[in-house]
Structure formats: structure tokens, C-alpha cells
Amino acid sequence: MQRILAVGGGGFMMEDAPSPIDRHITGLTGKARPRICYVATPSGDLPAHLDKFHAAYGDLGCETSHLAFFRQPDARSIRVSDFRPRLLEQDAIFVGGGNTKSALAVWREWGLDAVMREAWESGVLLAGMSAGAMCWFEAGLTDSFWGSAYRPLDCLGLLPGGCAVHYNSDPKRRETLHAAQQAPSIPSSIAIDDFAAVMYVGTSINSVFSWRTGSTAYQTYREGGTVIETALSAKQISL
Description:
By secondary structure, the chain is an alpha/beta fold.
């Protein structure tokens, strides 16, 4: 079964306390001690993020590892020289937040984009937050160009349409997404709030999860000259 969990914002990267979404990801594997690899390329493999991942998922009983292109390997890492077989044996792969454009460039240079597709097709759960959510779609609405505005970016294309994240934390995201769809420079999209996540089975939405009152996801599309935005019903999850 091909599954992708796109998290709009939250989890170990944003929350100081244990987060329901991290526990939920662990449970989605169906394993007592799941093997979960963290790919932190969007943040340049920031050591603080690596440490937070290992601490959070280690406490959840996972067998953790990480893949880092910008750091020397250590006892916790998958070596860049043989990452394909190691990633394909994981129960889940989690991609962190940061610069989506830079991460995609690194992945394409190393061939990780093809391995991610292979992992997805073979049934490895793919998940990620922020940049790690947008990367799976045809396009993402991102600030990765380091300008003052959000812009569409071509992504991996495992999932159809576009994706916007942190949707309820900055009004400019909604304004920019609607304008991009009017242009049209981004296709019909899923927009995900902080503390909400969307599960795809195959290439279709299966469910929406929320662990903060008011957080959810929205389907947005252009119809004639108008952008339609529809809030999706979210299942509440907790620790």
C-alpha cells in the first residue's frame, strides 16, 4: 500500500512536548519497533534537528537512523554511499522542514528522488512536515527562493496537485495561493494548517488528522474566475 502523510506544521521540530503526530506516525507503521529514517536535507542536516528526531522517536520505541548529505556519518546515520538498500528496508521515512528548493536539488543530484519513489511504490510510509510535506506533490507554495513572497515550485510529483503548509499561521499564504491559482501558476491544491496532517493512500486523500482545535486542511481550486476553498473534516488525535 502506497501512503504519504503530509504534515502542515508541528511534531518534534516545532513542539517542545511530545506530539500526537509523532506517536501517530509510529503507529501507522503497524510495527512494535518500527525502523524510521529521518531525512533532514531541507535544513542542511542541522545537528539540532537530528538530535531532536532521535530523541523523540527513540522515546517512542523506534529504531532510528538518519540520512545526511552535509554531515560526517556517525553511528546513527545511513551512509550516503549505500542509502538505497537501507531506505528500502525502512518502515517509514520522515522528511523535515527547511528549504524545499535546495533539498530537491540535492536529492536529484544524488538520485534520492528516484529512491523515494521506489520506497513509496514498495510500501514504505513516507511522511514529512512543511518542506517535507510539500516535496511529494507536483508543486509546492514555498518561500525557499528567500524572497519576500511565496512562489510555486516544481516538486517530486508523487502526489497530484499543489500543496501549501503552515496555512493558518500567515495570511499571505492564503492570499498567494489563491493568486497563484488565479494566474494559474499552481494546480488545484491541498492547504494544511499547523497541527494538522493529511494522509494519502495511493494518490487520493484518505483522511485528515488534527491535534489542535481549529486546525484542518483545505482543498483549493479554480472554478471559472473564482478560487474555491473547502475545509475538510479532521479526525482529532491525542497522546
